[in-house]
Amino acid sequence: MRIPTILFLCTGNYYRSRFVEHLFNAQAQRLGLAWSAESRGLAIERGINNVGPIAAATLRALEERGVTVAPPLRMPLQAQDEDFARAQRVVALYEREHRPLVAERFPAWAERVEYLEVPDVGELGVNEALGLMERAVLTLLEQLQGDGPGPHSADHSARS
Questions:
Q1: Which of 32, 66, 111, 120 is the most core-located residue (most Cβ within 10 A)?
Q2: 119 CB contacts (<8 Å, ≥6 apart)?
Q3: Domains and CATH numbers, the chain
Q4: pLDDT tens for residues 59-95?
Q5: For 122-133, how does the pLDDT look when each residue is reduced to its tens digit (9 = 90+)?
């Protein structure tokens, strides 16, 4: 049986979605929760200033939380329809930024996407954003511990 999966989405799959993916997986394993996370970008072509496979701030923040990201580090991945189909839950990091991208690029999946409120760098400081993401992941893990591994409706939102 396949472990249920949550798909985290951001624009470039470089900073926010990668942080919550790795933090979620580490915490789920620590809790013995039978869920895993993946992450993808909705528009990785917009990450023209992204250098390397993952943001240095993301790696530092994960390390500070005791989460090791084992090499080789993968490059950002563009979301595909198959990613949505495989996931039991889909969570985008910032509604104002990501709802239009989901509607434009993945309209068939738009009703399944839940949204957090974590703006990208420039709108919110890195430390504040990391704190919001960490709290959202912990809240989501608590929900999943109570709900079990089945599919969830939009009213079980992971909003922070």
A1: 120
A2: 94, 96, 97, 129
A3: 5-147 (3.40.50.2300)
A4: 999 999 999 998 899 999 999 999 999 999 999 999 9
A5: 888 889 999 999
